[in-house]
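Section 5: illustrative case.
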């Protein structure tokens, strides 16, 4: 799954590139109509006005954003969006929409009255218990919070989603701050959320994919707790563990193993499976993958607001772009390490658009109001970093060729017919992972194909030195090196019939 944004016609032009990467779905950032003209503030660094660029402040739930259309004055919104969806489907890609039902662009008591405030303020929004003029923006951090489980609002949400499925032909939705969908009238988490059950019980959504961001509300996140057996949840615990490991942190290999194996500690207790988790190392919130390996601190000065959260990252000696070829080579290798772990892990893999070609946001980890080069996609990077793009494409193809990397059930320690366990964990020595070693920075694992297909053995060495690793013996078979992130040319060789024995 690839995550991106852009005009509908512009995205159509890029679909062949996206298809050639090998991804099977495109997740679009919000396309609901929003106000892009209101100036939020002026940039303290440039003096230029800053406006909403990401679109996470919807003002209607039934219309595509005008600025994403070539001919909005002609009322071509629906046709242009449908043309994009049709083109995506012709290219073998599903379309997932990022939908924002947790708050709206009307803001708090100082915000404009556009629609919902004027229709019935108390129906659509959580209000302050003692002063109904005030809004419970603390539930979302966005000025207001939508009462998703009020009967009328639940109906509106269901009809909006049904419209995008039946009339626009989208394949699924990603719910921004999805935990708000579970809040009752007292802002406490409901065991049976009406809006969630509306998705489950309405036949119009029988084949619709549901993805949830596990944040929002005042009850903590809902990672592994979202009450929909068909929904997948963004697994931020995967992101954090893998970032710490690749950065070189000590003593995290046990957590890394759990995340690579699908996070059964989070999902199994609720009866979920590995596919209920979306594994990712970067998304629109936070650094791009290039910036994860290029900056120690976020650089949001141009936003004119407090810095916010700090990413788990490392700059390898220079903050930002470096003229040192050794540093840049190391950064590229670390990106290959991140991508390799991502696509060798269980769960649904999500790739942020541009991470395959080192797209940068210049250290800004929240550029929601930067409609400029900070946020734009520089397409010259695709050619400039063609080797990394090829490596990413190869990894996706490798994942598709090995069904054991896309399991529907968690590992059980069951041996295959060749005697290999479904998964076995190692360190430098076989069956000796450093789970309890506070100084360990290495991990290896063997995944057995359940049938007669190829088994997979991965070696992850985050030490600063080369180390010897043992390989498990498999009767009647030999190991071949498919890829090595220190030698990026190897995946190209592995596509041919000649393979290099280990």
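Designed sequence:
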């Amino acid at each position: 799954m690839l995550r991106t944004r852009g005009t509908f016609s512009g995205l159509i032009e890029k679909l062949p590139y996206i298809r050639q990467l090998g991804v099977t779905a495109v997740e679009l950032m919000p396309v609901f109509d929003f106000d892009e003209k209101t100036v939020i503030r002026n940039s303290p660094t440039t003096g230029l006005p800053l406006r909403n660029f990401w679109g996470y402040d919807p003002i209607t739930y039934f219309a595509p954003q005008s600025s994403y259309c070539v001919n909005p004055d002609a009322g071509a919104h629906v046709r242009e969006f449908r043309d994009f969806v049709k083109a995506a489907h012709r290219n073998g890609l599903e379309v997932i929409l990022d939908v924002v039902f947790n708050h709206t662009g009307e803001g708090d008591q100082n915000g404009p009255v556009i629609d919902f405030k004027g229709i019935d303020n108390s129906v659509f929004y959580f209000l302050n218990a003692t002063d109904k003029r005030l809004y419970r923006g603390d539930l979302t951090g966005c000025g207001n919070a939508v009462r998703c489980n009020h009967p009328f609002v639940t109906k509106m949400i269901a009809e909006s989603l049904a419209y995008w499925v039946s009339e626009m032909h989208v394949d699924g939705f990603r719910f921004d701050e999805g935990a708000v969908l579970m809040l009752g009238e007292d802002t406490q988490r409901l065991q049976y959320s009406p809006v969630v059950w509306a998705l489950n019980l309405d036949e119009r959504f029988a084949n619709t994919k549901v993805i949830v961001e596990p944040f929002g509300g005042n009850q903590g996140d809902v990672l592994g707790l979202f009450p929909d057996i068909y929904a997948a949840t963004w697994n931020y615990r995967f992101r954090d563990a893998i970032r710490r490991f690749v950065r070189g942190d000590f003593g995290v290999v046990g957590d890394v193993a759990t995340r690579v194996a699908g996070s059964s500690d989070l999902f199994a207790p609720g009866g979920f499976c590995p596919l209920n988790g979306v594994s990712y190392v970067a998304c629109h919130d936070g650094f791009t993958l290039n910036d994860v390996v290029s900056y120690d601190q976020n650089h949001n000065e141009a936003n004119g607001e407090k810095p916010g959260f700090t990413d788990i990252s490392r700059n390898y000696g220079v903050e930002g772009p470096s003229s040192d070829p050794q540093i840049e080579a190391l950064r590229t290798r670390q990106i290959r390490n991140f991508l390799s772990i991502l696509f060798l892990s269980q769960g649904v893999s999500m790739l942020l658009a541009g991470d395959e070609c080192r797209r940068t946001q210049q250290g800004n980890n929240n550029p929601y109001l930067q409609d400029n080069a900070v946020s734009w996609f520089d397409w010259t990077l695709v050619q400039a970093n063609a080797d990394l793009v090829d490596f990413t494409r190869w990894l996706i193809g490798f994942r598709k060729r090995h069904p054991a990397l896309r399991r529907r059930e968690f590992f059980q320690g069951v041996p295959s017919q060749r005697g290999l366990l479904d998964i076995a964990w190692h360190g430098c020595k076989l069956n000796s992972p450093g789970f309890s070693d506070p100084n360990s920075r290495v991990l290896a694992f063997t995944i057995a194909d359940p049938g007669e297909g190829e088994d997979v053995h991965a070696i992850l060495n985050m030490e600063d030195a080369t180390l010897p690793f043992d390989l498990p013996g498999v009767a009647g078979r030999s190991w071949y090196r498919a890829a090595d992130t220190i030698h990026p040319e190897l995946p190209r060789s592995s596509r041919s019939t000649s393979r290099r024995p280990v």
